[in-house]
Amino acid sequence: MKTNIEKLEDKYLVTLEGELDTAAAAEVEKALQPLYTSNGLDVIIDCENLEYIASSGLRILISILKGAKAGGSKVVLKNMNEDIKSVFKLTGFINIFEVE
Amino acid sequence: MNKLKKYILSLRKLKGLLIFIVAVLMLVLIAEVRNRYTRNIVEENLEKHAEMELTLKAILIKSTLRSAEDVLNNHIWHIRENLSHPDSVSSAVARMISLGHNLRGGTVAFVPNYYPSKGELFEPYVQQTGDSLVSMQIAGKNHDYTQLDFYKEAIALDDAVWVDPYVDNEGAQEFVTSYSRPVRDGSGALAGVAGIDLSLEWLSDTLNSRHIYPSSFLLVLTEGGEPIIRPSEEQVSREIPDEIIRLINDSTVARQASTTGRSMALDFDIKGREGCVYYSNMRGEPHWQVAVVCYDDEVYGPLLRLRFRLTLLSLLALAILLFMIDRFARNEKKLKRKTLEQERTRGELRIANNIQQALLPTTEESQAIIEDVCVEGRLIPAKEVGGDLYNAFVRDEKLFFCIGDVSGKGIPSALIMAITQALFRNVASHESNPAQIMKQLNEMACRNNKGNIFVTLFIGVLDLPTGHLRYCNAGHEKPILVDQHSLLEVNPNLPIGLFEDFSYEMQSITLKPGSALFLYTDGLTEARNAKGKLLGRERVLQWVSECGTTDPKQLLETVIEEVKQFSENTEQSDDLTLLALRYTPSQEQEVLSEELILHNDVKEVEALGPFIKQIAEKLGVEKSLTSKLRLAVEEAVVNVMEYAYPSGKTGEVNIRATSNGQKLKFIISDSGTPFNPTEVSAADTTLSAEERPVGGLGILLVRELMDSINYERIDGKNVLTLSKNYKTK
Question: Does ipTM come in above 0.90?
Fold first, then answer.
């Protein structure tokens, strides 16, 4: 599981690659820690190469979303594959994140 | 519609009025007929009375006159003997007069110059006043008897004669009538006329002494209509007799009466007082008329009084009738209102029954729910709504079923039934332990149980993969194990709704494939036949055992038919509820069986990806489903690791995958503390980001991704089974 964070002037660009399963969750959580307080910057997450996500991964995303909302910014998920999107649909996350 | 109603209402009111009017008319008619009839009777009686009165008075008058005649006729010889001595004539007359006390006087009026010594006119007269007799000679210038009727008529007729009454100023000195006859001396020459005066006052007193009616009075008239006898002025004021005499004299009827001798009647109205006078002519000399006067008020007085009393009675009867009609009308109204209310209640009960039937599982739900079990239930209420209940539904590869009986009948029981029914479904949707379900239902039933209504209930949870039946009884009838011809071993416990802290025990048994269970309420065992004999549990056991089938539908139909025959046409006294289920697990041919053992460390879930991929490849599962299977299994396993094993405690999680070529099953077992993930409530997907709790996502995903999940605690292990049919989309 690979994660990459790029901080621009007005936003974070995040890339998630591989399988975000429960085993990987702890590590990813640590890596994405800075995003929990995004200080008003939008968070753009590219999911093009994200192959799998478990509920522990979803919990990380919701923590980021709560932080962003508190700062008045948004979280955008880009390029999700159909499997991931169906998980978002099942959990209702499709309604609370901005999905492109 | 409204107009019609009003019209009918007014008709109803009119009905009472009509009865009243008819009653009034009938009473009036009866009164009229009665009045006429009684009046006729009274009139007839009066006529007879009057006739009799007239006859009697005539006889009295005649006998008086006859006795007076006799006095004169019998003493005429004595007078004749004394003719030769003019002065002794008076003593002969005196002797004669003294014989009749009603005679006022007697006389002999000699033809002029009969005794030359006595002058031209000579009439010795003897007057009787009480007992004393006074003799006098009354002839003179002022009293020329030769001009008087008694003298003239007797001589003219040369026979005895009654003279019309007159006031005799000289002799009797009162109102008298005289009887006179000629007197001849020894040589046959006419000597004079002998006469007697009869006191009419005396006669009047005698005749008027008694009458048919108090105010009635008698009149005696001469042939010419002159009054002979009339009531004294003290008795009747003068003008009334005068008027009646005038009426009689004017009436042609009276004249006819006087000639025919028949009694006649004549109505009069004098000074507003009405009455009737009856006449008849006395037969023989003198030709007097006798009349009796009767007043209507006295004749018909009693009749009027009777009429008055009867009218009062009739009015009273009418008042009573009116009161009764009013009462009847009110009662009828009350009855109508009651009937309406009853109809409405019946209507409401029918609606309640529909609602209640809707609460029961639908035919589709209760029949052949899934391939592993077949269920059939039936509720036949005694009244429109009953207090019986049953339910059966499948969740997480378990059949949850119950049967119960609320104490009492009717609407209160039906309400409790509905509540219990709903609660069972609610609680069993997240709780799988029947004793726990019972406990919760009991607590809720005890809360605010003011009516002290209790419910006997049997709850069963059949694990479909294993046939493991866990059950809890709350004072309900023991179910029958159909294929074993015996009753299920059951702790009675207490019905729910009595003691909030009662602890209900769970019991369990494993059903063999093909075995069946038959449950019922006491409406079955306590059904009665026409003789009042109870059906009894033994008979039920016998029927069920001997019916030769374990098919729930056939079983119920057989029992219902038997009950009908037993009770014949006796009215069903209690709700009758039957529930039957047969356990028929599908016999599966395993085409795959793989196993993976993990320690309770989330790091190890990495191994799940390759494990599931390998299985999916073997079975030819498409990629997107494989990913879903992996996610479901991972979530379930993580759940077990987190909850079944407290932190720091090590243990294993065993994942076994099996397939029959159609369905893929993951059986996840662990030796941790009992934990049933199916009872964890899934996350609410409709909440916003801020409101989303951290937990519940895992179980939500498992439920959504798999066809079914099933938890069982078997031999000290948590066993969670996830199933998915991978052949259909």
Answer: yes
